[in-house]
Amino acid sequence: MSVEIGHFALVLAFALSLVQSTVPLVGARLGSSALMRVGEPSTIMGFLMTGIAFAALTAAYMQSDFSVENVWQNSHSAKPMLFKITGTWGNHEGSMLLWVLILTLFGSLVAVFGRNLPATLRANVLAVQGMVGAAFLLFILATSNPFARLVPAPIEGRDLNPILQDVGLAVHPPLLYLGYVGFSVCFAFAVAALIEGRVDAAWARWVRPWTLAAWVFLTGGIAMGSYWAYYELGWGGFWFWDPVENASFMPWLAGTALLHSAIVMERRSALKIWTILLALVAFSLSLLGTFLVRSGVLTSVHAFATDPTRGVFILAILVLFVGGSFALFAARSGALTAGGVFHPISREGALVLNNLFLTTATATVFVGTLYPLFIEALSGDKISVGAPFFNLTFVPLMVPLLMAVPFGPLLAWKRGDLWAVSQRLFVAFGGALAAMIVALLFVDRAAALAALGIGLGVWLILGALTDLALRSGLPKARLRVAVSRLVGLPRSAFGTALAHAGVGVMVIGVTAVTTMQGERIVAMKPGETAEIAGYVLRFDGLTPYTGPNYLEDRGIFAVTAPDGRPLGEVMSAKRVYPARQMPTTEAGIMTLGFSQLYVSLGDPRDDGAIVVRIWWKPLVTLIWYGAVVMMVGGTVSLLDRRLRVGAPARRKARTGAAQPEAGR
Amino acid sequence: MRGLARAAVAAALWLALAAGPALAVQPDEVLDDPALEARARALSAELRCLVCQNQSIDDSNAELARDLRVLVRERLVAGDTDAEVIDYVVARYGEFVLLKPPFSARNALLWASPALLLLAGGGYAFINMRRRARRRSPALSPEEEARLEAILNERD
């Protein structure tokens, strides 16, 4: 019964989204506040209805109601409760429902917290959100109904793909979708601004918190996915340049550019066209990602052609929204007046450079991901574009950009002095150089490339610290004064410094693990030892274990430090899930400082030995800690007084008040 | 000949163990010469496992990936250069096997796009800035120039 209620609620949500996408739009056109006011209740009710639908599906999963086809295909009665719940979105239909749930959630947040927005802008934003929601709700109802029943109901389900039976599924997709779909708010704001033909600094101030929030979630989602793949897939890679990863990475790159662009627009009224365009691009790439992942077009153009209903539907949504918004942009962007003037050497100039590199990087990932499809569609030949291509093109684009990052926040607005800024960065540069020399001299196996990467990371971290130090008046001011100034700095200053330092931390982790990782592939019998990077692992044999819905062989390894100290045990397992007859490897990981030992079990051999693959992953956790630091930076920035809800209205009331960051 | 014998042993072993998950590179595949093995690993990272989704043969535990790894090592042991090994594999399996597409006319757009986009974008930004500067300058009187300069230098 509850399943039918869920289905019905979903249909109601679709009907509400139609109201939401039309009535406020007409109201804004006619200047009727009565019509515009329909926006909020329809948005909030739409969210509640989608919530009921989602809850109904979750309940069906929790009760293992196999009369629902979707539950039967993706669940099993013996599955632990956590994975029953997360299984709700571990499949196509459920994940699309989660997508729409988050979309309507963001719409409701605009409706609730956007009370200080100009009435027409709010009406238009909600209408655009409603259009996106209507399109995807129709998609679910027409092609991907999660509530379809099976008669007669099967006794047992077919279980969830074992790789997905992990805490990662509880965190990764919701975070990723909060990021993906969060950009829909920026998109809606951009389209609303184009409809009204008016964009100003206040607009940028409203858009920035949404961009920041989406960016923080997307950063977390991508990082979480990266760590999940690292420990789950069993060979310790952290980024594969897989098309599915690229699909989430492209909106992140564009969103990062948008974030920076919106700062310039808010503070200097410049880069309006950049900001609007990037807001459109970021969400268009989110839609593209949804299309790539959900249509099956990635496996092959032909796989897509065999069951095209879903793919063609999302493609139509993609064409409608991307085409529509860009046509609107082409028609209206002429009306966007150029803002404040600036010299090429200035903070605005630095941010233009930043946008240029980030959009080129986005385009590179875009071309690399779609080129095989393009060639196959054109000539029928299949080619591959994999990690070596992206490493050869993306890294050379990122290195100059990252080298320039510490200069950006130090340059003055309008016209900067590059030479003076370079002098101020002298200490950071010296520190980076010292780190490079230390890496070359004292770290085993460190190549020139490794030293350069570590130097770059240290340069980013010290550059961020330099920014904070200079803002608090060092080295001229006395320490006490400097400390009190530091505490009084706007939170966005800390946010910038943390985010940039986080990138540096990540660069060090990526460099260390790609250039200095160690690997051993050995066949071990119980009692035998293997040595890697000074650590000694003794294999203590295999023990069978029965889990709730799987069987596994656990291999225990006793680890000894280079100085002979015992460090405890690490357990690696080989699992079989009987429901799907699918084996997985559960990697054994021991974290030592920021580095990790990574043990993966292979096949047993006839002589009683088992194949073991052991990696030494130096500083590997810095990759994800770096992402966490970036997220903290984004969150701190989001808490800045200027960006708090209601701040724009209060600011307008006292125009002329000094900006907190002015006068640097 | 040694390579062939090794492959035969490897194949026999593989058949014996065919069930269950395997790790990518097996201990018995590893070549005795570390330099040769390092080359084999580097080459493997650039070759696609044909039955997987976007995995190199170095990462994949599929049977076909193992065959290709053994093949690469055989060719290296036989004295092939890296380029010869790649050519040999492409001749058998087609360009699809290359994770790094070759620099060919067909892939020109792919490889050139980052540089082209960066140049085009940079060029556009530069010209735009120049044009805005030129459009402004003749209209300004010396006093206005001075005032503009003062405004530009003014700290906000």
What does this structure look like?
- The complex is a heterodimer of chains A (664) and B (156).
- Chain A is an alpha+beta fold and 664 residues long.
- Helix content of chain A is 64%, strand content 11%.
- Chain A has 23 helices and nine strands.
- Chain A has helices spanning 2-30, 33-36, 39-62, 69-74, 81-86, 92-113, 119-143, 167-196, 201-232, 243-268, 272-295, 301-306, 308-332, 347-379, 387-404, 407-410, 418-424, 426-442, 448-471, 479-488, 491-516, 622-638, 647-653, and strands at 518-524, 529-532, 535-546, 551-560, 566-577, 582-586, 588-592, 595-604, 610-617.
- In chain A, the strands form two sheets. In chain A, strands 2-3-4-5-6 form a five-stranded antiparallel sheet, with no helix packed on it. Chain A has a four-stranded antiparallel sheet with strand order 1-9-8-7.
- Chain A is globular and about 85 Å long.
- The N and C termini of chain A lie far apart (64 Å).
- Helices cover 62% and strands 0% of the residues of chain B.
- The model of chain B is unreliable at 1-22 (pLDDT under 50).
- Chain B is an all-alpha fold.
- The N and C termini of chain B lie far apart (78 Å).
- Chain B is elongated, with a radius of gyration of 28 Å.
- In chain B, helix 1 runs antiparallel to helix 3, helix 2 packs across helix 3 and helix 3 (63-77) packs across helix 4 (82-93).
- Classes of the chains: A alpha+beta (664), B mainly alpha (156).
- The interface between A and B is large, with 62 and 46 residues.
What's the helix count of chain B?
A: 6
Instruction: Kindly report the average pLDDT value of chain A.
Output: 89
Shape field of chain A:
globular
Task: Tell me the structural class of chain A.
Answer: alpha+beta
**What is the 3D shape of chain B?**
elongated
Domain count of chain A, please report it.
4
Separate helix tally of chain A: 23
Rg from Cα of chain A: 27 Å
SSE class of chain B = mainly alpha
Distance between the termini of chain A: 64 Å
CATH superfamily placement of the largest domain in chain B: Cytochrome C biogenesis protein
In percent terms, what proportion of residues of chain B is strand? under 5%
Strand content of chain A: 5-15%
Work out the count of structural domains of chain B.
2
Radius of gyration of chain B: 28 Å
Main sheet: strands, sense, barrel of chain A: 5 strands, antiparallel
Largest sheet, strands/sense/barrel of chain B: none
